[in-house]
Design goal:
The complex is a heterodimer of chains A (292) and B (270). Chain A has 292 residues and is mainly α. Chain A has twelve helices and no strands. In chain B, 39% of the residues lie in helices and 24% in strands. Chain B has ten helices and ten strands. In chain B, strand 4 and strand 5 form a beta hairpin. Classes of the chains: A mainly alpha (292), B alpha/beta (270).
Chain lengths: 292, 270
């Protein structure tokens, strides 16, 4: 208050200059604060990456088999210049290989969702079914999905469906388990509301169970996609054909380490994108009260 | 009022035991109570005395281990929209807007006989009754606790229930909001002539709202200790009522019961 009175008593021009200076200072401070925030957000990841490059450089300098970051960058530029070339089944661009792997993951994952999510709902809703399936799930969940590959090969008599089968097996468990947990956690209050309103089982499912379980389900889906992307690389190394996993193995046989390192980067980026996409979807479907 | 209307809800020798790992726990015994049509009944008692258990029995959410409960001469076999419940923690579905929460109830009760426009009007009318027309499209997490509880009341009223059951409906609210909602409830009940059974632990609330106050003894094996007829003129207004000569007397009677004759178990131990 006194500050205003003071500035009013001064000549108007001086007061205006004062005001402008004050605003300039405030603007400057604000800009400095923003700069700091940006720096703090950007600097640590950049430093981390630089450290990684440094370690890589040192390792490659001491080991002639491992290409340096610069060499790798060159071979990556070559690969990415023509990602979709096709010289017959054994020589295709890295883009085709990634797409082939994604297709397998999509199929195995989709089938697992189609079976696992309804099964999770049933196990969560009916204690009897939970008693039936829980021991099976507990027993089979820790088994490496690759152990299932021979069974897939035997049953389907082909490499491609066997890889899809391995993806199916590895991604079904988190979807069953998380969906069932979600259903079991539906608050009794909501179910009491359903009972007082005398809602039909279908209405209970669509208006209470499904919206409540959705975030749990999406967590399961997210875990499953991460697992599936881990497993596909290993499965393809065993089954061969076309796919990023086999591509890595093929390049190992060619002793082309630069390509392998590029492939590792590509696998990481694709996995990150898949995961982040599902995190985004999960956030969009999580309601305030459920989040707490 | 004929005999049927005097015994609109009729509880005969109801008993409720829970079977736990530690053996049977007898919560309620020998409950005999008749609630008349249009009557406002409060159930009051210390925490753990089984007042919510009794309300759940009337709602049909649980079944008595012995005895019988009738509503409009029919046995209460399970929950039904004709006995609407206002839950203590509002129990609104967080993914539905206020209007959709109420509509869910309306659709269930009137969906078979009325068209969509009429159903939506009913939901809107129920929200208007509790003064929440402006919040129709908001979701529960966007509104205050008092407003949520009002949506819960609107949802119950929208079903045009024969009986309104309220489980400490204002327990979680601050004193001013609570007073405001009590006043609104008085008006709504006067307008709709609803039969109400309300669980409360607030003596003033019980005296202000009720026609009769049912006082429960301490559990386990709680039963009705005393029933107090509150003969205060309606419509009631909280400020003038506080100066009414009988008001202090009723209030005193309930306090006497709760703090002298049925001291809280924790207080007795102290």
């Amino acid at each position: 208050m006194s500050a205003i009175v003071e500035s009013m008593s001064k000549p108007a021009a001086a007061a205006a200059a004062d005001e402008a200076a004050r605003r300039r200072r405030a603007g400057l401070a604000e800009r400095r604060r923003q700069l700091r925030a940006v720096l703090l957000a950007v600097l640590p990841p950049v430093l981390g990456l630089l450290l990684l490059l440094l370690v890589w450089e040192i390792v490659s300098a001491r080991n002639s088999g491992i290409p340096s970051p610069v060499v790798t960058l060159h071979s990556a530029a070559e690969l990415f210049a023509h990602p979709f070339y096709d010289n017959g089944p054994n020589d295709q661009g890295i883009g085709w290989n990634v797409l082939a792997s994604l297709k397998r993951v999509g199929m195995g994952f989709g089938l697992a969702a189609a079976v696992g999510i309804p099964l999770g709902f049933l196990i969560g809703r009916f204690r009897f079914l939970a008693g039936m399936f829980n021991p099976i799930v507990s027993l089979l969940k820790p088994v490496s999905p690759l152990a299932w590959l021979p069974i897939g090969l035997l049953v389907f008599k082909a490499a491609d469906p066997a890889a899809v089968w391995a993806i199916f097996i590895c991604s079904i468990w988190p979807m069953i388990i998380n969906t069932a947990i979600g259903v079991q956690r539906v608050p009794q209050d909501y179910l009491n509301v359903a009972r007082v309103l005398n809602l039909s089982e279908w209405k209970i499912f669509t208006t209470i169970l499904f919206p409540f379980v959705l975030p749990y389900m999406l967590t399961g889906v997210r875990l499953a996609i991460g697992m599936a992307w881990l497993v596909i690389v290993a499965a393809e190394m065993l089954t061969g054909g076309i796919g990023i996993g086999f591509w890595v193995w093929d390049e190992w046989n060619n002793l082309n380490m630069a390509h392998i390192i590029v492939a590792i980067g590509v696998i990481g980026v694709v996995g990150l994108v898949l995961e982040q996409a599902l995190v985004f979807v999960a956030k969009a479907f999580t309601y305030e009260d459920v989040r707490n | 009022m004929d005999a049927n209307e005097q015994k609109f809800i009729d509880i005969q020798n109801a008993e409720m035991s829970f079977f736990t790992k530690k053996g049977a726990f007898n919560a309620l015994r020998d409950i005999n109570l008749a609630v008349g049509k249009g009557e406002f009944i409060s159930l009051i008692g210390h925490s753990g005395c089984g007042k919510s258990t009794l309300l759940n029995l009337i709602a049909g959410l649980t079944q008595p281990t012995a005895g019988m409960l009738l509503c409009a001469n029919r046995e209460i076999a399970g929950p039904s929209p004709e006995r609407a419940v206002v839950f203590q923690n509002h129990s609104l579905l967080p993914w539905l807007t206020c209007h959709e929460n109420v509509y869910l109830a309306v659709e269930r009760v009137f969906g078979a006989t009325e068209n969509l426009v009429r159903l939506k009007e009913r939901a809107s009318a129920a929200l208007a009754l509790v003064g929440l027309s402006h919040a129709e499209q908001k979701r529960p997490h966007e509104i205050s606790g008092g407003m949520k509880q009002r949506v819960g009341i609107a949802r119950a009223l929208s079903m045009e229930p024969k009986v309104l059951l309220m489980d400490e409906p204002f327990g979680a609210l601050d004193a001013l909001t609570r007073a405001h909602l009590q006043d609104e409830l008085l008006k709504i009940v006067a307008a709709t002539k609803s039969t109400v059974v309300m669980v409360t632990h607030d003596v003033d609330e019980a005296v202000l709202l009720s026609d009769r106050i049912v006082m429960l003894t301490n559990g386990p094996s709680a039963t009705i200790g005393e029933i107090l007829e509150v003969d205060l003129p309606r419509p009631r207004e909280r400020v003038t009522l506080a100066q009414h000569p009988s008001y202090a007397q009723y209030r005193g009677a309930v306090l006497e019961f709760l703090y002298h004759r049925q001291r809280h178990p924790a207080q007795e131990a102290a």
